[in-house]
Structure formats: C-alpha cells, structure tokens
Amino acid sequence: xxxxxxxxxxxxxxxxxxxxxxxxxxxxxxxxxxxxxxxxxxxxxxxxxxxxxxxxxxxxxxxxxxxxxxxxxxxxxxxxxxxxxxxxxxxxxxxxxxxxxxxxxxxxxxxxxxxxxxxxxxxxxxxxxxxxxxxxxxxxxxxxxxxxxxxxxxxxxxxxxxxxxxxxxxxxxxxxxxxxxxxxxxxxxxxxxxxxxxxxxxxxxxxxxxxxxxxxxxxxxxxxxxxxxxxxxxxxxxxxxxxxxxxxxxxxxxxxxxxxxxxxxxxxxxxxxxxxxxxxxxxxxxxxxxxxxxxxxxxxxxxxxxxxxxxxxxxxxxxxxxxxxxxxxxxxxxxxxxxxxxxxxxxxxxxxxxxxxxxxxxxxxxxxxxxxxxxxxxxxxxxxxxxxxxxxxxxxxxxxxxxxxxxxx
Length: 409
Known about the structure:
Keywords: Membrane, Transmembrane, Transmembrane helix
GO cellular component, one term: plasma membrane
Number of domains: 2
CATH architecture of the largest domain: Up-down Bundle
Shape: globular
Protein name: MFS transporter
InterPro entries: MFS, MFS_dom, MFS_trans_sf
Radius of gyration: 21 Å
Subcellular location: Cell membrane
C-alpha cells in the first residue's frame, strides 16, 4: 500500500522528530548516566552499572520488540517504548532527588527498554514509502540524529543546572522527551500491524538465516557498529591520555556525530547509483582511511579526523546495510528480522564499548586503530564472499524459473 505524497511527508516529519527525541535521550544517557552513577554508588565498581543496564536491557528488548512488532504492528511497540522512557526518566529523577542508587538503576533499566524501539523508526518510513523510494526514506529519518547531535549534550548540561540538585533536571528532560516521543508514536499510522503482517505472517529468522543477502545485512550492520563503537568509546579516553584538552575532546565527539548523521541523503544517492556492494566497499574504505590517519597521527586534528571519517563510513554502511535488510524480505513482513538484526548489532556494539577502555590501556590508540582495520578487512573479505554467493543464488533461481516456464509451455 502506497500512501499519498502529502500524507507520507507528514509521516516522514513525525519520524524525523521521533528520531531526534530518541537520539537526544541516548545522548543525555551517554553524557550524564556515568556521572550520576559515580555520585550515587557506594562502591566504585558499581558506578557504571546504570549505564550497563541501559545497554543490556536495550539489547534484550530489541529481540522481544521485533516479535511484538510482527504481531501487533510498530505503533503499539513504539508507544510502549515511549511509556517506559517516561516512567524511567521520572523514576531516575526521584532517585537523584532521594540519593537512591538502586532506584536509579531501575530508572535506567526502564530507559534501556526504549533503546529497543528507536531502530524501528527508519523501518516504518520504508514500509510507507513507495517500493522505489524505501532506501531514501530510511536514510532521511536518520537526519533526526543531526538535531540530537546539535542539541543533546548541550541540553543535558543546561537541564542539569536548572535544579538545585545536580542532574535532576536532566532526568526530568528525559521524561519530557519521552512524552514528546509518546505523542508522536500515538499519532502515527498503524503501519504493518493491521495491514500486511496481520494477514501475512512475518518472515521467521530461521527462513532467512542462510540467505546471503540477509547475512550481508547482519555482517555490515553489526560489524560497522562494532568498529564505530570501539573507536567512539576509545577516542575521548585517548584524547585525555594524550593531554589535548577538553576542547579537542568535545570537537572530536561533535565531528564524529556530524559524520554519523550528516551524509545520510548522500549515502542514499550513492546506494541508488552504484548499488549496495559498491556503497559498502566505499563505506569500508572511508573507515579504513580514518583508522589509517589514527595510525599516522595521535595529534588533536588526527584524532578528530579519525573520529569524523569513522562516523561518515558508518553512516554509509548503516544505510547500505539497512537497504540489504529491506531486500531480504517482502515489504511489510520483516519485523522479526529487523528486531533480530538490531539486537545482534546492539549486543556486538556493546561488547566493543565495554572492551574499549581495557583495549586502549593494553594496546594504545595505535593498537585500537590496527584492531579496527583488522575488523574492517574481515568485513570486506566476508562481504565479497557473501556477494558472490548471492549472485550465484540469484542466477540459480533465475535458471530454475526459466526451466519451469519452459516445461509448462
């Protein structure tokens, strides 16, 4: 079912706004959750537990959300996710006001549940776009990240200063953003829940696990997420160890976020003109060039260039990988595959984030970049192999179809 252009433009604007809310909440979590944990934890070893709960709960719920979306549609799942972040932000605010570490952990765990539904926003756009514009619609939703990159960290700091109790305002801001996300989710169309997937069962993961196109999608999205997270988590720490100062550290994160979201429309054009394979090779090359700069220079500008190029390469791979995922199932029947892919990506990325500090201490900034290059080389090698398999599978299917038509005639 193809919606009229005016209605789709309204939906696209809603999705971009919802994506901005999502990434602003993520940005606030990344900026302040560790600091709040440090101020409330009685044992230093527990101070990162609230942030870890966000990641772990979000990863687990990603798998659950995919199955729920396949059964009920995207809108109820996104409404439920928004409700969890409203409650989570409120509980976190109460925890900060009452100096309760356990209550803060509960609040961040609820906020983590919302992490599971943010990835569906781009897929809602693809379901309501015309078949020839699915990839572009998916990419345009990513522009919500630009708004979040510009406002998220600044809003977190400003909100934290609005109340006498440190960080209380930031927790309240999370709840407010959750209310906005709730309104946006509640006013969206039901998407596939009452249309295709209500009458056509969602494709099961077992049906696609051996499909080369689906395998490429998982490889690209999970692999690029691992490299991006590893470099992003290591960069600020490496900057601090090198003594470049907080201004350079802030610039690194800012340009990294710009690289992650700004090229979305160009990534979609690249995908449309050259196809998924060449777009993926280009994205891999951009990340590799960023890591090569990291090997050559540990200066402030060198680290900033590495962070920016890794962000740009990730954007290209994210758009191209998502497009491959769309190609692996009929329109309207992919919610389970989407949930599985987002969950796998979140789990692998979380591993990179958790290991970043230890790897940086053990290997140094040069070692991090060498490791990233090794992962990128592995991704490229497997991508070539899976692409050859996909072409052979398509050729075999075409030959079998031709033989069937000939025998029937």
